[in-house]
Design a protein that fits this description.
This is NADH dehydrogenase [ubiquinone] 1 alpha subcomplex subunit 1. By secondary structure, this protein is mainly α. Helix content is 66%, strand content 0%. It has one domain.
Length: 56
């Protein structure tokens, strides 16, 4: 009985992981719908300014 006691934590951890994935996908979908492109992770003000400068 004690050998499989860790299985008690699998269901709650699965629920938490599933909710995190769902929340991330909702944020991605909303951002893509609002801006028309995916969010670029890790871009700061310097990256944005460089991108604008390179487009000119």
């Amino acid at each position: 009985m004690g050998r499989f006691q860790f299985l008690e934590a699998v269901l709650p951890l699965g629920i938490i992981a599933g909710m995190l994935c769902i929340a991330g996908n909702i944020q991605y979908t909303i951002h893509k719908a609002a801006h028309g492109r995916p969010k670029h992770i890790g871009n700061d003000m310097w990256d944005e300014a460089l991108a604008m400068w390179c487009k000119q």
